[in-house]
């Protein structure tokens, strides 16, 4: 009887003796009065615990509802004018701490506060159904066990032997058992919380940034800045609506991916076949398999079918599923060839196919994939944290300027309301209103370009991370090489030539039968390798799994053992029509796997030399073996069938390199992106392919593997084929050669060497061969832990873990939306690796550039406003509007459309907003602005025509009419306002041109026609305002009622040209020095 155990978290049971629990009773319906009696059995014998699922939280605290404290919370919300409600929306756990009462007894809790490993706290409601108390955290159910006084993580899995499920084939589950299991495990649905648009809108509105914007808009409306305030309000609404729309669209896409709305036929209550929705399935249900989407993970008990698993694995070839044949094996331990996975599609069934539900909901294989998407491992993105530091720095500057403004206001005799309004005006200029639009729209442009290139993305944040990639790992077969392996022939190892038409009957039968092919609608389907091998024979296959020759049945299948990645082989059991009572077993697999099961006498004396010879020539080499048995193989286990077999020869396949692979690898390596190959193929074959694609490798390579005695040895290929003992593995690091290492050798290194030595060997290794799927994932994680930003691409099931683990994974799949990786190449083109990196670098550079622009924007505007406020002046509504809307927002959005450069270079975008080139750029542009700003003001003050606002306000000069209260107690008519405004918006133009010079990551700005035309149009308007003082546009639209003298305007214009040239030169020098 199988057991499942969960470890009680220490925080929940610190005061209790250590206990564990067993979950039993899902094996049999006997010996218990209720389902709960069968499910919960206390046990102190830890040796009998079969499976442990530790909690995914770090700490847990229980709380009870309290009418008194709820009333206190309501009063506090009223007393704070709703501020507490807003703060609670930012930190929801505050509500729990204020409005509820803490309890140390978890069984008394109505809600629990759960903290995960990253410090994120979440409130989870405790539910009770049929005396089962539970809550859900990260889509996993936690049930309260009285024996341990803690909540245990319980997956929705069936734990029993195959024989137990088989016994229910005629009866199914009773309604009472179904109800109890549903109470324990929940419904069979991957439910994603769907927030209403209203709720999402409210959450966005009370976000600190947008809340700040709304307060600013209210203040500006009070100041009669109607046009500007309404414009900012519209812009904020647009940004909020865009974000809500994107969030709702992404949520809808995710819900469509997880939704399963099929009807399923199940046996219930003594054998009645009923049709129920997929969500009503429970573990242990007996299901009649039909040609439709699979609603849960199921184990086949009767029959055979074919399924399409491309949406889960990226592998487009349908797979054949056969019933489980080991009655004593746990349903969770059966081979995947007997399991139908939730989300796959059954294409064909052979007769009535019955299966038992073994996993439901988020406990299914598909559910676990989606949990990884919903709750990914935190990959730190430096730009996010850096952006907050910049905003803090700007806020500090605004605070200091605000203090100065308070002093000036008191000195000028301003009223307190006017002073507060002007102070808040200064602060509001610190955080640019266009910032969220810029940050979201830029990624949107990148997504659009990727979609046009038929690269689909389910995690937009990974686009910028792709710009940091400095290491890329490739699967070999189907990625660097063709998807198809073409049959070259068989080497009988008897001195005869390689042939595709062997004279030996054993080889002839082996080629005809040792495969997993099926016939669907009259067409032979299966792996291309096996189709090509079978096509070389003179045999035919029918839908009844019979092999024919000249329209006569020759062989009939008794059983197939599909390829097992752990065993590295597959086999079939067939019966020849003219051999009654005898059965032939044919096995094919990797040469290494064949040496373990073949009789030694049947192996050729030069077995290893032949394998190395074929592998070094680029052949995909497999061994072929046979034996004759008299026992019905359907009642015999696989290990017995695949033992003591006679070696027949080598199967040779050609796997041509894709024509574009060489160019892709050379492009990456010329850009100093480290390239690795991680393959399950032979090391020599992998090295041959690496040479074919011109991968940068040392002339000779060190190949590390385990020799016959299990010790690590190495060869220096191709100069020597002698095996030398590796001894101290650290000496391999000192060799001036690239490494190739086998999976077995790498496992040995992991177990016997220090972590530091292991990591260094992984970093030095260029080719990883004979690597199993789990080890692929470990290699990628190790490279990431070593500080590399790692990308991974692959096309099959074996790559799923590595694709998920990498910083950026690109699945070569024709599925429109694959959950295998954040990016999917619909064309299955390896060139998309380069496309993705180019787009990533472009997106990252554009984000950095736009952020620089948006940092300089408040510096320029805040400086100008602060200088004017010092003399009781400010900008007018239309002046604010023109700068913020038409200059800054228009230019900054259009500059985001710059397409990526067509080439990859060695240059890399900065990894941080505090990178030297970013800091130097901001510092130099700020100094340049300060110099020209100050020089223009000083030059104006020394002109005989200049009248300062202070003199005009005091009545000492009468150059223009003084308006004392145009904005509070300030004016926007003075020479100072005209000069500061003209200088300010010209600085935005200067920045737009200087920052958008050609760089290694984006196309020339001239390719962005909309940006060029718009910037030119804005420049033309500003030239008109500057060089035609007193024109109608300037006076009536931009309130320039104190025009500057014509001669001085030309001087200012020339200084702006000097400013532009200097800014461009500084930016070019910084860029060149960084590159």
Automatic annotation (TrEMBL):
| PROSITE patterns in UniProt | ATPASE_E1_E2
- Protein name (record): Cation-transporting ATPase
The entry lists its GO molecular-function terms as: ATP binding; ATP hydrolysis activity; ATPase-coupled monoatomic cation transmembrane transporter activity; metal ion binding; P-type transmembrane transporter activity
Task: Give its E.C. classification number.
Answer: 7.2.2.-
What is the enzyme's main class? translocase
Q: Which sequence ranges form a coiled-coil region, renumbered to this chain?
A: none
Record bears the keyword Cell membrane: no
């Amino acid at each position: 009887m199988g057991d499942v155990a969960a470890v009680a978290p220490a925080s929940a049971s610190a005061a209790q003796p250590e206990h564990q629990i067993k979950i039993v009773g899902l094996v049999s319906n006997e010996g218990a009065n209720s389902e709960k009696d069968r499910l919960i059995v206390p046990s102190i014998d830890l040796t009998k615990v079969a499976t442990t699922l530790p909690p995914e939280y770090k700490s847990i605290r229980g709380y009870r509802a309290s009418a008194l404290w709820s009333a206190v919370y309501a009063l506090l919300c009223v007393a704070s004018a709703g501020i507490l409600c807003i703060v609670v929306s930012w930190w929801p756990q505050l509500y729990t701490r204020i409005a509820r009462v803490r309890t140390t007894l978890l069984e008394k809790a109505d809600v629990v506060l759960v903290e995960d490993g990253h410090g994120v706290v979440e409130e989870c409601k405790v539910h009770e159904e049929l005396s089962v108390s539970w809550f859900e955290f990260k889509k996993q159910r936690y049930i309260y066990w009285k024996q341990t006084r803690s909540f245990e993580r319980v997956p929705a899995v069936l734990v029993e032997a195959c024989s137990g499920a088989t016994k229910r084939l005629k009866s199914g589950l009773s309604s009472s058992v179904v109800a109890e299991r549903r109470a324990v495990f929940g419904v069979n649905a991957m439910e994603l919380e769907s927030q209403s648009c209203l709720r999402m809108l409210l959450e966005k509105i009370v976000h600190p940034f947008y809340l700040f914007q709304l307060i600013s808009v209210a203040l500006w409306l009070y100041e009669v800045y109607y046009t500007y305030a309404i414009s900012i309000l519209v812009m904020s609404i647009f940004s909020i609506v865009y974000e809500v729309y994107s969030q709702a669209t992404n949520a809808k896409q995710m819900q469509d991916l997880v939704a399963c709305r099929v009807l399923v036929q199940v046996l219930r209550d003594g054998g009645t076949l009923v049709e129920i929705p997929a969500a009503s399935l429970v573990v242990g249900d007996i299901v009649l398999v039909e040609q439709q989407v699979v609603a849960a993970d199921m184990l086949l008990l009767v029959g055979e079918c074919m399924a399409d698993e491309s949406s889960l694995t990226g592998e487009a070839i349908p797979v054949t599923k056969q019933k489980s044949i080991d009655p004593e094996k746990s349903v969770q331990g059966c081979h995947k060839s007997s399991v139908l996975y939730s989300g796959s599609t059954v294409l064909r069934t052979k007769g009535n196919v019955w299966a038992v539900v073994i996993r439901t909901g988020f406990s299914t294989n598909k559910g676990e994939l989606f949990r990884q998407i919903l709750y990914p491992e935190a990959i730190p993105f430096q730009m996010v944290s850096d952006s907050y530091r910049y905003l803090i720095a700007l806020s500090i500057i605004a605070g200091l300027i605000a203090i100065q403004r308070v002093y000036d206001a008191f000195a000028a005799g301003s009223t307190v309301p006017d002073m507060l309004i002007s102070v808040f005006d200064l602060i509001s200029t610190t955080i640019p209103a266009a910032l969220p639009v810029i940050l979201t729209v830029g990624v949107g442009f990148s997504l659009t370009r990727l979609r046009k290139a038929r690269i689909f993305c389910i995690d937009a944040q990974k686009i910028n991370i792709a710009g940091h990639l400095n290491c890329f790992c490739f699967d070999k077969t189907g990625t660097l090489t063709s998807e198809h392996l073409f049959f070259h022939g068989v080497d009988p190892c008897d001195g005869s030539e390689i042939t595709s038409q062997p004279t030996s009957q054993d080889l002839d039968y082996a080629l005809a039968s040792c495969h997993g092919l099926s016939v669907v609608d009259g067409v032979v389907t299966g792996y291309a390798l096996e189709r090509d091998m079978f096509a070389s024979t003179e045999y035919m296959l029918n839908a009844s799994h019979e092999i024919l020759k000249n329209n006569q049945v020759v062989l009939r299948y008794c059983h197939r053992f599909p390829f097992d990645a752990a065993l590295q082989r597959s086999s079939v059991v067939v019966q020849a029509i003219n051999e009654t009572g005898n059965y032939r077993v044919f096995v094919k697999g990797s040469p290494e796997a064949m040496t373990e099961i073949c009789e030694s006498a049947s192996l050729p004396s030069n077995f290893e030399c032949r394998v190395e010879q074929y592998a070094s020539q680029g052949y995909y080499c497999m061994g072929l073996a046979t034996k004759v048995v008299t026992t019905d193989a359907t009642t015999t286990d696989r290990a017995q069938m695949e033992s003591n077999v006679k070696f027949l020869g080598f199967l040779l396949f050609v796997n041509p390199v894709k024509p574009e692979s060489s160019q892709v690898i050379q492009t990456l390596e010329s850009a100093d992106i480290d390239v690795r190959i991680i393959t399950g193929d032979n090391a020599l074959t992998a090295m041959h392919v690496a040479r074919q694609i011109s991968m940068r490798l040392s002339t000779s390579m060190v190949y590390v593997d385990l020799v016959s005695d299990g010790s690590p040895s190495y060869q220096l290929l191709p100069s020597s084929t002698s095996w030398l003992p590796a001894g101290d593995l650290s000496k391999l690091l000192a060799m001036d050669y690239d490494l190739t290492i086998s999976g077995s050798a790498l496992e040995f290194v992991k177990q016997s060497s220090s972590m530091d030595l292991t990591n260094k060997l992984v970093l030095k290794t260029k080719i990883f061969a004979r690597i199993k799927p789990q080890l692929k994932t470990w290699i990628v994680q190790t490279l990431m832990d070593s500080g590399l930003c790692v990308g991974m691409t692959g096309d099959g099931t074996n790559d799923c873990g590595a694709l998920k683990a990498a910083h950026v994974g690109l699945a070569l799949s024709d599925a429109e939306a694959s959950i295998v990786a954040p990016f999917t190449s619909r064309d299955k083109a390896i060139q998309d690796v380069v496309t993705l990196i180019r787009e990533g670098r472009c997106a990252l550079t554009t984000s950095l550039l736009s952020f620089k622009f948006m940092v300089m924007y408040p510096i320029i505007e805040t400086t100008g406003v602060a200088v004017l406020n010092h003399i009781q002046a400010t900008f007018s509504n239309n002046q604010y509007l023109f700068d913020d809307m038409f200059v800054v927002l228009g230019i900054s959005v259009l500059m985001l459309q710059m397409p990526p450069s067509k080439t990859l270079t060695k240059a890399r975008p900065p990894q941080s907003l505090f990178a030297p080139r970013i800091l130097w750029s901001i510092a130099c542009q700020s100094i340049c602005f300060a110099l020209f700003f100050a020089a223009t003001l000083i030059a104006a003050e020394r002109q005989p025509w200049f009248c300062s606002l202070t003199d005009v306000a005091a009545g000492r000069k009468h150059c223009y009419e003084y308006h004392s209260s145009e904005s509070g107690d300030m004016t926007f008519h003075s020479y100072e306002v005209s000069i500061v405004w003209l200088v300010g918006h010209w600085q935005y133009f200067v920045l737009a041109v200087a920052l958008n010079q050609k760089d290694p990551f984006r196309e020339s700005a001239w390719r962005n026609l909309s940006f060029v035309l718009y910037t030119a149009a804005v420049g033309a308007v500003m030239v008109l305002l500057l060089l035609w003082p007193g024109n109608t546009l300037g006076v009536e639209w931009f309130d320039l009622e104190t025009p500057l003298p014509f001669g001085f305007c030309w001087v200012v214009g020339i200084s702006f040209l000097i400013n532009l040239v200097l800014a461009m030169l500084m930016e070019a020098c910084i860029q060149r020095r960084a590159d």
